Fold these 3 entries.
Entry 1:
Amino acid sequence: MNQLIAKIKDRNKTASKYRKVLSDETIFVMPEDLTNAVVYNPNTLLEDGDLFVITQFSSKEYCLELLKMDFDSVDYALLDVQAFEKLDFLVSYQDDNYFFQNIPKSQLVRKKILLFGERFQYDNSNASIIIKDIPDAIYSKSNDSLYFHRLSSITSIFHGIDQLHREATEAETTGFLSSPFILLTNNFSSNDVKTANRKRIALALDALANFNDEEKRTIFAYIQDYCPSLAAANNSFSIGTEDDLKMLLFGIEQRFYTTLVGNERRVANSVIPMQQGGSRNG
């Protein structure tokens, strides 16, 4: 039985923050093919219509308790219409799948509308939520996987999931720029580092932590080969602009490559790790 559940913002921390809204309604449609979903990687840009996937989702610390239990509609009281402005997100339970839609304040609409149905009807006190054609996330119970398009759309639903693509802290950013392989020029400092590069720094710190000394030397030589303008004394890199920093970070992520035909040097704008056999998803 299909059930639409609403999560409410509750400062009183009641036992259940979920309420029933509708029964026997199909709110969202399951995508035809989820087999080509791409395992989430912040370096990957999706093609139109593609989805990211996080497998073994119930074992993640940001998984909702709701998804770990068997669904039973009797566990949820009806939503009080007065709680409209307290709505946080919607969950549509359909055939053992959970469809999520975030509800930012901009979607909690109160306005005068003219309804077109069997007859014209004017309503000057209407409260409504715009249902998206595509949900923000889908959880499949059968394979314990979460599918989504954009991480930013679901961070307010799954608290802590933003750590998958976090920004480096001010201390981490300052520490990275103070690395012995970086020579700052043009008075460049952490104050000049914007969000995109802060996210790349967080990824670079994780990558460098997994490199041994020999691998670091190999990576630095690789960067100097592709970005000779960054090369400075003592195997360091001259960083004086955001673009300099971006290219250094791209190098640490090993995004530079040379085409086999034409010998053209390029930088990958998006990366999809290939698994054994060429499959994109693990």
Entry 2:
Amino acid sequence: MKRDRDALLLTSSRVAELLGVHSTTVKRWCDEGSLPAEKTEGGHRRIALGNTLDLAKAQGIRTFLDPFHPWEPNVWKAVHMAEQEGSFERLNRLALHWLSTGDTDRLGRLFFEVGNRPDIPFSRFLDEGIRPFMLMVGVEWQAGRLGIGEEHMASQIVTEVLIRMRPAWGRLDSVTTDAEADPPVAVVGTVEGDHHDLGAQAVRVLLEREDWKVYYLGADVPVSEFAEIQRGQGASLVCISFSANRSRPDLLRTVKVLSEFYRPGFPYALGLGGSLGDISPQRVPDGPFQDLLISRSAHEFLSWVRDLGNSGKPKKPRRVA
């Protein structure tokens, strides 16, 4: 590991970003000799990650890499690729390794760090980070390289990370009585018989980060209860996530029941998503809803939700595959 720390070279700007200082400070440290650096043929400084972390420790500077010792180079590369290159492959493989070795605290910290990066949209974190990771876990379980216990641990760790990323609790410090400032309201959960609510948790946090008030019903909820809570709380959006073991009849039944319980005096849009497999969106009836989306992408769902917020007019139902 020490060799990896020395082999990974950073630019002055990357060092400054990591340490939270100005690039001129990094250059001064290099000139003074407190931060050893190499120079390229073009005269640009290259600084070993190990020397950077040693200086940070000496200066009392904390970095996001501190909790990951001795995996700092691996984590830096994984975060850099996700943030700068849009690739989560290295990150997910590192997370999978930690899951297989039982290093679950590091796994959770890694996802929490990446999910809170300002340069990584939260929807992309869900689509390209969390979802592929859980698919990888499923593949490893089917191949016999992971047990059912590890699969459950992965789901629990990701759920805990998502809950920690909720902004809702912070709003309690700024409660307002101004009616015009009331946020839009959504109801989120999974239907009866569906005990896997990771997708619903992701939708919950995604909406809350868009300043929605979310009534989260959790897993295994009778469809009629979504309609009851929607009317009771004046929600303008109902979102239901389906796990991989759901089928087209489950989807059709959900839409049918919600259509029967729909009241024009309490209008709302309906968003359905998750692991819908090869279910054709075109084979699902529109229903009486103000708008209808069937989506497998957090990015597409987010675009739809923002469109709902920008227009008070009902739109022609659409579906995103």
Entry 3:
Amino acid sequence: MQSAIAIVNRAAEQALALVEIWALIAERSGFVGAWRLTAVCRASRTGVKWWLGSLPGFLICGGSHGSGAVNDVWQLDLATLRWEPMPALVTARYGLSCCTVRGALIILGEECFEGPTSTVEILLSGEGRAFNDLALLSCGTIEDAATVVVEESDSAAGQVLLIGGMAVVDGAGTEMSTVYLVDLATGICNPQPALLDSRFSSAAARIPDGRVVCAGGLGSASLTSVEVFGPSTSGTSNADWTWTRLPPMSTGRYDCCGCVMSDGRFAVLGGTTHDGDESESDLVHATESCEVLMLGHHGAYWEPLPDMHYQREGFACVAVAECIIVVGGHSTAVTEVYDEKLKCWFILSNECNLPNEDRLASMGSALW
């Protein structure tokens, strides 16, 4: 009897070990490679799903379609490739900034039904979740600013950088070069060194060495210019940080997306480009092109990435598990993924398309 129990226990241990091995293989295969492994055998499928279930979900917040702003929040489960509804925003809004700070989801400002708003919302993890309002931003309403999380431990709720954007006065919008360090607990916005170029609807992210890159956006036309926020040559403290110009992108872009790939490169995807008066429709178009910033000992330069399958503007993207996932935008509801190892884009199944029939655009996105 004891021998039979020992055999069963040993078999169970071996089966569990096999599943764990497949989970490790999946982790080293990236998101696309892992999904391909699910077809190998039952143990591979279990191990892959185990690893995929440990990944954060791709979350989209708010946005706009034909009837105006929405307060919907959805999360794409990377283990099931299904969109799941999340608690709704307090205020319907589009063009919003969305990020995760200390495990909480933060929503900042942008447009709602009543017009621009300086409200900030937070969603904490846990059961019975709901969005709650935080303090209003002391800098007032800023539309289409880029948001980057600041790594620190001094504030009660965390801090973010609010980069550029557009100020609206008496119905007229003006692009801005302002940069604010926002304390989320109090809403106090402390001015930082200004951008070299005024811009809104740009792409920004923190790269592995701690510096912040801001690319593209809209000024008098779609911008090719790129700048980086980091220590000046005269000092290394945050007080000495300043903006420095980097080589321009190959094309001007706004309503684009930016993300940091697994190897630390900063990628800029899609967006809208135009060369002058936006009333000339033949000069204004969305693009499927992508490019990546190379930073190293030999200087900085841009290299092309393969084009997406669809032209996209005002869409959402995240980088996770050696891939980039994009969804939505003004032109399509299709979801596609870029595999960094295979260096190509794949269209995901129809179940991964945006959960509503309308083409949702100008939404926020985050991993959570």
